[in-house]
Amino acid sequence: MEIGYKLKEIRTSQNYTQKYLGDLLGVSASIVSRYESNVLEPNLDTLIMYSEIFSVSTDYILGLRTNSLNSNESSPAHQYRKLSETENDLLIYFSQLNKMDQQWILGQIVDLIKEYDNVKKDSSDKEGKSTA
C-alpha cells in the first residue's frame, strides 16, 4: 500500500477535511490531496506532524506496523479528547511560528497563568477574610 492511501484513511477516520488538515500542517488542501493520491510524497517533518496530529506512529503511516498506536495504549497521546475549535485555532497559529517565537509565547502563557492564579488566590483569600 502506498502511504497516500494510509494518509487519507487516517484523515477521514477523524472526519477532517483536507483544508482543515492542511491548515494544521501549514500547507494547502491541494497539497494534502496530492499526498493522498500519491502524486507527492510528504517529507519527514510532515510525516511526523501527521503522527502527532493523529496520535499514530510513523511506522503505521509507512505501512511497517498494523497497529496504529505510537507506543502503549496508556500513553498520554492515547488518552485523546477532541479539541475545541478555539484549541485547534490556537494550535494552527502556534504551529506557524518559528521555534524561538514558540518558546517566547509559551513563556508568556506560563507567566499569564501564574499571574491569573495569584489574582484568583488573592481574591478568594479576601472573600474568606470578609466572611469570617
What would you say this structure looks like, in words?
The protein has helices at residues 3-13, 18-25, 29-36, 44-54, 58-61, 85-95, 99-131. It is mainly α. It folds into two domains: 3-82, Orthogonal Bundle (434 Repressor (Amino-terminal Domain)), CATH 1.10.260.40; 97-132. Helix 2 crosses helix 3. It starts with a helix and ends with a helix. Mean pLDDT is 83; it is low at 70-80.
Task: Note the main attributes of this structure.
DNA-binding, Lambda_DNA-bd_dom_sf, 7 helices, elongated, Helix-turn-helix domain-containing protein, 434 Repressor (Amino-terminal Domain), Cro/C1-type_HTH
Unreliable parts: 70-80
Helical region count?
A: 7
What percent of residues are in strands? Answer: under 5%
Kindly report how far apart the N and C termini lie.
70 Å
The main sheet comes to: none
Backbone shape = elongated
Regarding CATH, which class of the largest domain? Mainly Alpha
In the CATH hierarchy, the third-tier topology of the largest domain is known as 434 Repressor (Amino-terminal Domain)
CATH homology group of the largest domain: lambda repressor-like DNA-binding domains
Structure classification? mainly alpha
Order of helices and strands: HHHHHHH
In total, the number of strands is: 0
Helix proportion: 55-70%
Task: Report the radius of gyration as a whole number of Å.
Answer: 20 Å
Organism: Aequitasia blattaphilus
Keywords: DNA-binding
Protein name: Helix-turn-helix domain-containing protein
Domain HTH cro/C1-type: 7-61
